[in-house]
């Protein structure tokens, strides 16, 4: 061996995984499940930051924040909701949509993992979501007949903001005529649940204020996308947020399906929330623990 030659081989330093940034406009669903996602990521030794915007935040506010933090975001992997993903697209940053992870965890709980795989591979997302909505409401109404409405108002605005009605996520929706009308799709489900009266309105502002009147005994309810319920001019009735008031009275059925499932849990009518959290934790860890 030559004098002065160092024969020690230096071991390469393992590359550290990139930190993760969770970005969302908050709602009841995310308040429940973002901590589960963050905890699962931390179990994979990831550093996790969370940025949430109030539910009334505009797209412009979110976009301004994304542009102002472009440099920091470029150094991290991003998990975003449907609302924030478009603004992240504007700064040309890649991301994973965590709403789909939550949806998959809930679907696995509703159908079981084996049936979930069968329905997923069938490529008919409408069949899967339709069955999920029907099974959840059927369970609720059978076990809690007092909240089964005699009339349901379906609100058209914002129904295409989320899967499965979101056009750019669902080629089935854009090409099959029977699914070109989300209220019609939802009406078919509600008719199977024997709701006596179903009416479609364009805006939540078109729902009569009598829905809040306790002296009126007709049990009216609203089915709407959660984005529609963020309207500032619809936000309060007698000093209480309308969304909160309707939810507390069992008169609000929020879409997409994962919000429906989450909201029903809050009023004590949904099963297996621990199983949803366990499924979500497994999905996240399987995705990132590579």
Terminal-residue CA separation: 41 Å
Low-pLDDT ranges: 1-5, 169-178
Instruction: Report the sheet-strand fraction.
Output: 5-15%
Roughly how much helix do the residues carry, as a percent range? 40-55%
What string gives the helices and strands in order? EHEHHEHEHHHEHHEEEEHEHH
Strand order of the largest sheet: 2-1-3-4
How many domains would you count in the coordinates?
2
Question: According to CATH, what is the class of the largest domain?
Answer: Alpha Beta
- CATH architecture designation of the largest domain: 3-Layer(aba) Sandwich
SSE-based structural type? alpha/beta
Rg (CA only): 22 Å
Largest beta-sheet details: 4 strands, parallel
Per the CATH scheme, the topology name of the largest domain is Rossmann fold
Contiguous helical run count: 12
What's the structural blueprint in terms of helices and strands?
Elements: E1 20-25, H1 28-42, E2 48-53, H2 59-68, H3 70-73, E3 77-80, H4 82-89, E4 96-97, H5 98-111, H6 113-121, H7 125-143, E5 151-155, H8 171-175, H9 182-192, E6 197-201, E7 220-225, E8 236-237, E9 240-241, H10 242-248, E10 252-255, H11 257-266, H12 273-288
Parallel strand pairs: 1-2, 1-3, 3-4, 5-6, 5-7, 7-10
Antiparallel strand pairs: 8-9
Helix pairs in contact: 1-12, 2-4, 5-6, 5-12, 7-11
């Amino acid at each position: 061996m030559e004098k002065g030659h160092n024969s020690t081989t230096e071991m390469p330093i393992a590359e550290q995984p990139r930190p993760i940034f969770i970005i969302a406009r908050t709602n009841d669903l995310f308040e429940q499940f973002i901590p589960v996602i963050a905890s699962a990521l931390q179990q994979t030794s990831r550093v996790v930051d969370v940025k949430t915007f109030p539910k009334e935040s505009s797209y412009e506010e979110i976009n301004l924040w994304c542009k102002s933090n472009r440099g920091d975001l470029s150094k991290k992997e991003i998990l975003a909701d449907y609302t924030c993903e478009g603004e992240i697209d504007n700064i040309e940053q890649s991301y994973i949509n965590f709403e789909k992870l939550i949806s998959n965890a809930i679907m696995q709980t509703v159908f079981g993992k084996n049936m979930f795989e069968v329905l997923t591979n069938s490529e008919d997302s409408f069949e899967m979501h339709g069955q999920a909505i029907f099974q959840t409401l059927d369970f609720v109404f059978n076990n809690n007949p007092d909240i089964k409405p005699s009339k349901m108002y379906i609100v058209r605005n914002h129904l295409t903001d989320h899967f499965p009605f979101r056009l750019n996520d669902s080629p089935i929706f854009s090409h099959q005529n029977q699914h070109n009308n989300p209220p019609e799709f939802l009406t078919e489900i509600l008719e199977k649940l024997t709701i006596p009266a179903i009416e479609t309105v364009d805006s939540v502002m078109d729902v009569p204020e009598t829905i809040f009147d306790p002296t009126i005994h007709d049990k009216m309810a609203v089915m709407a996308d959660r984005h529609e319920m963020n309207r500032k001019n619809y936000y309060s009735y007698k000093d209480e947020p309308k969304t909160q008031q309707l939810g507390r009275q069992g008169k609000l059925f929020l879409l997409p399906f994962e919000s429906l499932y989450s909201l029903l849990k809050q009023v004590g009518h949904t099963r297996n929330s621990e199983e949803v959290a366990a499924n979500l934790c497994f999905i996240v860890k399987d995705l990132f623990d590579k």
